[in-house]
UniProtKB/TrEMBL annotation:
Cofactor(s) the record lists: pyrroloquinoline quinone
Domain of life: Bacteria
Alphabetical UniProt keywords: Oxidoreductase, Signal
Name this protein carries in UniProt: PQQ-binding-like beta-propeller repeat protein
Keyword Hydrolase part of the UniProt annotation: no
Family indicated by similarity: Belongs to the bacterial PQQ dehydrogenase family.
Signal peptide: 1-20
Pfam family, any one: PQQ
SUPFAM superfamilies, sorted: Cytochrome c (SSF46626), Quinoprotein alcohol dehydrogenase-like (SSF50998)
Length: 730
């Protein structure tokens, strides 16, 4: 679990960087998590539990440029920044915009080339140097694998900072960096962390095949772009913990990447890096060992990249149990003293509360015996670390007794799936199998995901939203020897994918944990199922996005796939206010002080994410308490119909469906499908599936939400190719 490599002293950032980094106003939102500590907390006090019901949308900003002729709206999970009363927002149309936070008026726009896009869910903010040095900058990643800086005031690239090509030979391991035919990807899909004058980047990589780009974390000079340090996520020969990889299994190993958000203790100069699973993340026959630093929270010296300590939350991961949640810096009250701590959570929903300086757990963690694998050659780790407190915030397994009975139709559908597909139900931590599909909860999407949690230090509560989405998984191999999910209906265990899960509700929750005593303070369903009768609708919904906590005791959150934006009482979990948006807000809301002195709350409403929510809107919606005579912005809740392709592509002969799932079927879109659909998984993960046209639309939307490069003018053609060659009735 935990290792510490030295006696830790207090680390200080450079004087210029530290002074600037701590000079932000209470009304600013300077990082993806509100600040580099990942607290998602606003100190503003204008909006309270007593008046939140009066909140109205006061202005909106359409992400789609006015000059665009495309009928399709692009999805987004972006969190804007708010600095000095201005908003800075990246759009799915390849643009960064600076907006007046009080009116939405555009101050400047930066546009990428048409063949590129902005990767990720947030921007990094560097406050610059005092005394006439470099001015404040924004940092972001592109889908072409670059790190770009913009001057905060003008939106222009600084003359002394050229775009950084992140796909260097050292990290690419001999792959081609995202282009056809290999399909490997390497891009930033979370905001870079900023620590003093260092910009720290992780990366999104493919989940299979096993060889590909490295998940190394790197630090860059915010002033010049110079590479300052590299931390190898898979230790190399001669490096500490290299022995956790048997033989040459470390070589060219992909995965073990920080695809989610990092956090920074600015006073101590520590960056906390949450690493994901190794590739392939469900089978480990080729990588015996604990596989460090996979599934670990690693503390590094932010200036040098030097290892300080690590805590591994899953040994030898064969379930895709990444650490998707941004670490949150918290304060734990113990025995009359306050302990600086960091909260880390993987997809299981267990919260690990660790001493920020040493990595030592503040609640006991027990190495608990776990089931063996039935797969030849798989050496499942015999124990896994389970904290004595807090308890997990989601269920850890299902049985037939848990099957949904919400409606007769859902109950019949789920029973039929179990019988017709030969589905079994996995015990907690049971390894996956090759002889039958198994239902696993938490599934591959969690539990929690990248939205992270919010920390109210005054009340000592850590608040996080979670989904209860079981996965159906059966391992198989394609003709090239690549493992993939070969189940008859892989992905979610439900009716219509994630729309109606096959277990009893709740299907999504919002939970508050008291971090000092390790108890759950409250837990409530998050979201409603509109298609059900009114008396049955409060099921909770699958969700992704993050919460926002305020000093007045409010938690704001979108996240759920029911297109609602809500406010809850932080102390009790009682829902106080709800607003229906034009599309689901799979993003994190922010609160800020406008230049007019008013407190605002803003959230991106644009659907998408791995839930595949319809892109029925693509806008930023900004709320405030109404002034006398002020009326709500009418466009805030407007939903647009999702365009449906009028002409179906010509039907291809049935022989086009290849018996070998390792290859795509012939056709005009074959080459593009290979490039777009294999940026994360091997071809068989796509070609083994059979879906209706509507489900393929949702699948491609989900791929785009994950970062697949599908230009708007190729979307319908790709859906036609997939629906024609891999239809549900074959």
């Amino acid at each position: 679990m935990r290792q510490t490599g030295w006696k830790i002293a207090v680390l200080m950032l450079s004087a210029a960087g530290a002074a600037a980094a701590t000079s932000g106003r209470d009304g600013d939102w300077t990082g993806f998590g509100g600040d580099e500590a990942g607290t998602r907390y606003s100190a503003l006090r204008d909006i309270t539990p007593a008046n939140v019901r009066r909140l109205i949308p006061v202005w909106t900003f359409e992400l789609k440029p006015q000059e665009s002729n495309s009928p399709r709206l692009l999805v987004s999970s972006m969190t804007p920044l708010a600095i000095g009363g201005m908003l800075y927002l990246a759009t799915p149309y390849g643009r960064i915009v600076a907006l007046d936070g009080a009116t939405g008026a555009v101050t400047w726009t930066y546009a990428l080339p048409a063949d590129d896009g902005i990767a990720g869910r947030g921007l990094g903010y560097w406050p610059g140097e005092r005394g006439g040095g470099a001015s404040p900058r924004l940092f972001f990643g592109t889908r072409s694998g670059q790190l770009i800086a913009l001057d905060l005031a003008t939106g222009k690239p600084p003359a002394d900072f050229a775009p950084i090509q992140l796909r260097t030979a050292e990290v690419m391991n001999g792959t081609n960096g995202g282009g056809f035919p290999a399909g490997y990807t390497y891009q930033i899909n979370s905001a870079p962390a900023i620590a003093g004058n260092v910009v720290i980047t992780g990366a999104r990589l493919q989940e299979s095949p096993v060889e590909g780009p490295a998940g190394d974390v790197r630090g860059w000079d915010a002033r010049t772009g110079k590479l300052l340090w590299t931390f190898h996520s898979v230790p190399r020969p001669g490096e500490r913990f290299h022995g956790t990889w048997q033989g040459d299994s470390w070589a060219k190993r992909s995965g073990v990447n920080a695809w989610s958000s990092m956090s920074v203790d600015e006073a101590r100069g520590i960056v906390f890096v949450p690493f994901g699973a190794p590739a392939y993340d469900r089978i480990g026959v080729d990588r015996a060992g604990a596989n460090l630093f996979a599934n670990s929270l690693v503390a590094l010296d932010a200036r040098t990249g030097r290892y300080l300590w690590h805590f591994q939350t899953v040994h030898h991961d064969i379930w895709d149990l990444d650490l998707p949640v941004q670490p949150t810096l918290i304060e734990v009250r113990r025995g009359g003293r306050t302990v600086p701590a960091v909260a880390a959570m993987n997809k299981t929903g267990y919260l690990f509360v660790l001493d920020r300086v040493t990595g030592k757990p503040l609640f006991p963690v027990r190495e608990t015996p776990m089931p063996k694998s039935s797969l030849d050659g798989e050496q499942a780790w015999p124990t896994q670390p389970i904290p004595a407190a807090p308890p997990p915030v989601i269920r850890q397994s299902l049985t037939t007794d848990d099957l949904a009975t919400v409606t007769p139709e859902l109950a019949a559908h789920c029973r039929a799936r179990v019988e017709s597909e030969g589905i079994g139900f996995a015990a907690p931590w049971e390894p996956l199998r090759t002889d039958r599909p198994m239902v696993r909860l938490p599934g591959s999407g969690g539990g929690p995901n990248w939205g992270g949690g919010a920390y109210d230090g005054k009340r000592g509560l850590y608040v996080i939203n979670t989904s209860e989405l079981p996965s159906v998984e059966k391992m198989g191999k394609d003709a090239k020897g690549n493992w993939y999910n070969a189940g008859p209906q892989p992905s979610w265990f439900g009716m219509g994918g994630a729309r109606m899960p096959c277990q009893r509700p709740p299907w999504g929750n919002l939970t508050a944990i008291d971090v000092s005593n390790g108890r759950i303070a409250w837990q409530v369903p998050l979201g409603v199922t509109d298609s059900l009768p009114a008396a049955l609708q409060k099921t909770g919904r699958p969700n992704v996005g993050g919460p926002l906590a305020t000093a007045t005791g409010l938690v704001f959150i979108g996240a759920s796939d029911d297109s609602r934006f809500r406010a809850f009482d932080t102390a009790t979990g009682r829902e106080l206010w709800t607003f229906r948006l034009g599309a689901s807000a799979h993003a994190t809301p922010i609160s800020y002080r406008g230049r007019d002195g008013r407190q605002y709350v803003a959230v991106v409403s644009a659907g998408g994410s791995y839930l595949g929510s319809p892109g029925t809107a693509s806008r930023l919606v900004v709320f405030a308490l109404p002034r006398q005579g002020e009326r709500p912005a009418a466009s805030a809740s407007v939903a647009q119909a999702v365009p449906v392709e009028a002409k179906r592509a010509a039907v291809v002969a049935a022989a086009a469906v290849r018996s070998d799932p390792a290859s795509f079927a012939p056709g005009a879109e074959k080459a593009f499908a290979e490039k777009a659909c294999t940026s994360c998984h091997v071809a068989a993960q796509v070609t083994s599936q059979r879906k209706t046209r509507a489900d393929w639309v949702a699948t491609v939307e989900k791929m785009v939400g994950f970062g697949a490069q599908v230009p708007d003018d190729r979307f319908d053609a790709l859906v036609s190719y997939l629906a024609t060659n891999y239809p549900a009735d074959r």
